Model the fold of this input.
Amino acid sequence: MTRILVGVDASDASIDALKRAAEEARWRESTLEVVYVFEPHQQVAAYPVLPERGTDRAPDMEEQREKARKSLGNWLDEIAVDFDGIDVEHSVLAERKIAQALIERSKDADLVVVGSRGRGGFAGLRLGSVSEQVTRHAKCPVLVVRESTKE
Done:
């Protein structure tokens, strides 16, 4: 294998997925691609014009992407994942559909690793699990890592 893709969102489940993806990348001597997908803000709904607060425009896509890039870098620095000996690449994508973005990226991956918060039953159906969608439609094998229980 040459490329492992892991989707992260700064949740505990994605930290567990990232740790497992790093182990897989080290073991397989693969490049690890850490992908953070964010949903861009809608100009009218999320950022109304508020002159009294000193802003008269919504942040443009590049500003949002740069903020997400910085957040990802800071988050990766803060978590306890050992990346020694692993070729790591970071990607920040602005997409409305997180699962679709990971599925699209899976075309260039040999393995996709995603976290799962373990929502099942009605909540899982209603929320439309990203891990379930990626598992069903990815173009390569998918490893779903359950969030560890902290006792």
